[in-house]
Design brief:
The chain has 18 helices and 2 strands. With 416 residues, it is mainly α. It has a single domain (17-201, 213-412), classed as Growth Hormone, Chain: A. A two-stranded antiparallel sheet has the order 1-2. Helix 5 packs antiparallel against helix 6 and helix 7 packs antiparallel against helix 16 (338-347). The longest helix has 30 residues, at 265-294.
Length: 416
């Protein structure tokens, strides 16, 4: 006998502990494993790119183009997951694509090889992101959306802590860190990514299957996202065009030449990156809880202000302690913004368009990251590191002003 729709909804929303259901927990584990894999790569990728001839502009281009390409996929995958009311197939294919690409970095010998592989890996993220976030919202009662997204980001960033920790023994054991050291790490990173795909297959529970939309309705339904959504996206795009990539934080620390104890520059920089992710983990859930209680806007305004201060600090930091403080503040900013943004989007759109809205949110972010990355890279190469961070400082203040001025209210939603 098949389950009723109500029984299926209850199964999807089984709670593990307050505000966190089984699906949210499992998707958190998946993100932990996947980010563990990715973060074995990310701290060393800018250094690997530099070793094979990349400039600051090329690194900015790679980061911006990979995110922008992925962003073009996110709104489509989100809309299709709304159309079919199925999230799991998109989640599985997205994580599977990223897993298949990672070991190919071992073969990269030129920056354009990394460019192509990063774009392909990010396309996998584009396929999975909006359906996964929509399933988190589907699986959680409205009063706990901030906590659920905060929990997911905390699990994601726990993987980002464990990944660099796992590669530290490899970096320390190498008397001299070479391209071969980096390539070995690329291969090892495949293991947790593969485990994440297995967890999805075994434990993620989908919503009921139900197709109610036609492809031609896509643009019509985009209008139903409502004025509050598009006001929020205007703020998002202004901010993210100047959000400085983690890659520039790593390069900034490495270029200063500071070391922690007897460790090499590469190991010391990786330790700072671990510190950033530890702070991210510690902040994400409390920030989500706080946004559930006092609203999303004050928390996001705080994160914008903090990013401006962080950018100013990184532009002028000239000691190891100041650089370390910059990484800590970057972690607080990330932890207090990413999950809260997703909860905010979920708040202000019709429930049957969550996947579409979250996909459009990711797309808006990605579309501005390419020009933003190019500008940041050009400033880095032609003016200096201080100009890149000054750019981030300026755009975050403009975004903060827009957030304060624009009135984004849930009551303005037009039902789909």
């Amino acid at each position: 006998m098949s389950m009723s729709d109500e029984q299926k909804r209850k199964r999807v929303k089984r709670r593990v502990f307050t505000g966190i259901t089984t699906n949210v927990l499992v998707l958190g584990i998946v993100s932990l494993l996947t980010d563990m894999s990715s973060e074995m790569i990310y701290p060393i990728l800018p250094l690997f790119l530099t070793a094979i001839g990349a400039t600051g502009l090329v690194i900015g281009l790679i980061e911006g183009a990979s995110e922008t390409t992925a962003s073009m996929v996110k709104v489509i995958s989100g809309w299709y997951s709304d159309r079919y009311r199925r999230r799991k197939p998109f989640i599985l294919w997205g994580y599977g694509t990223s897993t298949a690409v990672k070991p190919l970095l071992y073969l990269a010998t030129a920056p354009w090889h990394v460019f192509g592989l990063r774009v392909a890996e990010r396309v996998g993220k584009g396929i999975r992101s909006a359906p996964r976030d929509a399933l988190i919202a589907d699986s959680t009662d409205q009063g706990y959306w901030g906590r659920a997204f905060g929990f997911h980001k905390a699990m994601d960033s726990t993987g980002a802590v464990l990944g660099p920790i796992l590669i530290l023994p490899v970096l320390i054991a190498a008397s001299t860190v070479t391209e071969g050291t980096y390539r070995l790490i690329f291969l090892l990173s495949t293991i947790p990514a593969f485990l994440a795909v297995v967890v999805i297959l075994a434990f993620v529970r989908d919503k009921e299957a139900r197709s109610t939309r036609k492809l031609g309705e896509f643009f019509k339904e985009m209008r139903h996202l409502g004025r509050p959504f598009y006001l929020l996206m205007a703020v998002v795009m202004v901010f993210y065009i100047g959000e400085i990539s983690y890659a520039f934080f790593i390069l900034r620390a490495y270029d200063e030449g500071f070391t922690i104890g007897a460790y090499s520059q590469t190991v010391s920089t990786t330790m700072l990156y671990i510190l950033y992710n530890v702070v991210f983990v510690l902040v994400a859930i409390p920030a989500g809880d706080l946004s559930d209680k006092i609203g999303r806007k004050p928390v996001i305004a705080f994160s914008f202000s903090l990013f401006a201060i962080t950018s100013a600090l990184m532009a002028s930091a000239n000691t190891l302690w100041l650089l370390g403080l910059g990484f800590v503040m970057f972690g607080v900013y990330k932890g207090s913004s990413e999950g809260v943004f997703k909860a905010y989007v979920t708040d202000i759109v019709p429930s049957n368009l969550r996947g579409t809205a979250l996909g459009a949110f990711h797309t808006s972010v990605g579309l501005v990251m390419l020009p933003g990355g190019i500008v940041a890279g050009l400033l880095w190469d032609s003016v200096g590191h201080w100009a890149t961070f000054a750019y981030g400082f300026a755009t975050s203040l403009v975004a903060l002003l827009l957030l304060v001025v624009l009135r984004v209210r849930k009551a303005e939603i037009t039902p789909a």
